Structure prediction request, 606 residues.
Amino acid sequence: MCGIVAYVGPKDAAPILLEGLQRLEYRGYDSAGVVVSNKGLKMRKVKGRVADLAAVMPARFKGGLGIGHTRWATHGAPSDVNAHPHLSADERVAVVHNGIIENADQLRAKLEAEGVVFLSETDTEVLSHLIARTVKEADSLEEAVRAALKLVVGTYGIAVLDAERPGEVVVARNGSPIVLGIGEKEMFAASDVAALVRYTRQVVHLEDGELAVLKADGFTTFASDARETAKEPLTVDWDAGHYDTGGYEHYLLKEISEQPDTVARTLRGRLDDRFHIAHLGGLNMDARETRSFRRVKIIGCGSAYYSGQIGAQLIEELARIPADAEPASEFRYRGPVVEADTLYVAISQSGETYDTLAAVQELKRKGGRVLGIVNTVGSAIARECDGGVYLHAGPEVSVASTKAFTSTAVAFALLALHLGRVRDLSPAEGRRICDGLRRLPEQIKEILVLEPEIRELAHKYAGAPSMMFVGRVRGYPVAREGAQKLKEISYVHAEAYPASELKHGPLALIGPEMPTVAIVPDDELLDKNLTTLGEIRARGGRVLMVGHRVADPKLADDCIVVPKNETELDPILLSIPLQLFAYHAAVALERDVDKPRNLAKSVTVE
Ligand code: G6P
Prediction:
């Protein structure tokens, strides 16, 4: 959600900023802008994509100090003036900002009463005016920034330039990520390591309340009370290659296709052949503690929440502990009852989703024990949790989650196995699950081979104005995620229902114009699912069945047959054809697959 890049060093800042913004564009992409400092501030900003900004950049845009931004609008519609950076009236101070200033209206009214004229409708512009008010008298830029931030309520990740101090950039964080990148006689900062890995792998994550001053020869970090803080740089193992499309037409297809490998990476070194358990060293819990939980509560947003539903089912089945998943965004606002014998699990690909982070903080405040299932090492949610499981799926760039969704479900299978084996799950059962998990990468490859067939089906169904997705018990989260994928990238309306609930209302919608995707695994509920298909067909509904056997033509018009694994693990495989289905439907409808309208990859605001 919005991207920030900053550079201080001997090179020209503008090309580095543009390159960084391109890497961050998946986080927000309705407008973009840069400012560089070279005997005064020079700025270019436009509504549109980073490519639109690059097109209007003058050839001579020199200066070794600069900040840039790609925006996902919150306050004020996407437009040239609302694009960041925002300058103070005297054009001395420039600010880029992620997050939301909640008291922006009051601050704006106060500043306007003092005679300040605002150019944009953004909440961010108050910051440039507030900093400009004190910057002249302040001993340093960080002092002026700190004074301004004291007046602000809300969340921010910011980068600030002062034309009169042309050797430094100040960045600060509260709720929106800022990462510093340490180069050779040059320093970088960004809202996401994606913008840094081309230049350096040495990074430092700012904590909430921290501020940093970057100069070409190094950086200094400060706590909110202005005390200097010591930071240990971290080496990131993601490189620039992870952020290329690797010859695929879209990141989404690349990420779907990577799944045999990413699932193998999530499993690597974690299955034990002797005791048929999962090794999850990051949980930071001994066996006694692991046994003590009587309930598991899983939280996450969007696709992370749906993978949590698969996780809850796995934990109930394998560990026989009551488990359920809930959107983190709802959980944090309903004054949750936090209990000592509940294990809380927070899921996040990015590790930065604000609703999930705030829910974790609420849980911690109430003394809850929280594990994180997170893809991004060192991210805010990972740092906030008591322990957890990293996915090791590599960075996910396309807005719609695919490989992280699958790896999260796999991580839950490992966690369920772990919780089960310290309880009543027998070694033989443990072995069955370990063997099943090992088969997953090869079986995913078999599903990917079906792509031409799935593409044809997607083209066939993509014209429908609306689609129904149904599944029962294990199949229900698969249906929900399938509907989510379709709507977010193809904009085709899709509803997901438990198959059992269809006759209690939504069956009224079924007819030739509303086809159904039915998740029908070969499990103990097969007959019940087939009955549902009969009910749909009797109302003239078209059916695309996704399951383990070729469909009876009386019950389904089309089918996608996926390889069978252990019943508990089948949802992981059944989700994959639905990713390809949504992808090809979106391509058929000529959508912007990797950057669907109105959405952003990491939602770091409420
Ligand atoms: C956004 C994205 C979704 C994603 C959700 C959670 O809404 O558009 O694709 O599932 O955030 O993201 P996280 O990084 O916390 O997994």
In short: Residues 260 and 540 are 38 Å apart (CA to CA). Residues 301-304, 348-350, 353, 356, 399-401, 599, 601-603 surround 6-O-phosphono-alpha-D-glucopyranose (CB under 6 Å). The two ends are 11 Å apart (CA to CA).
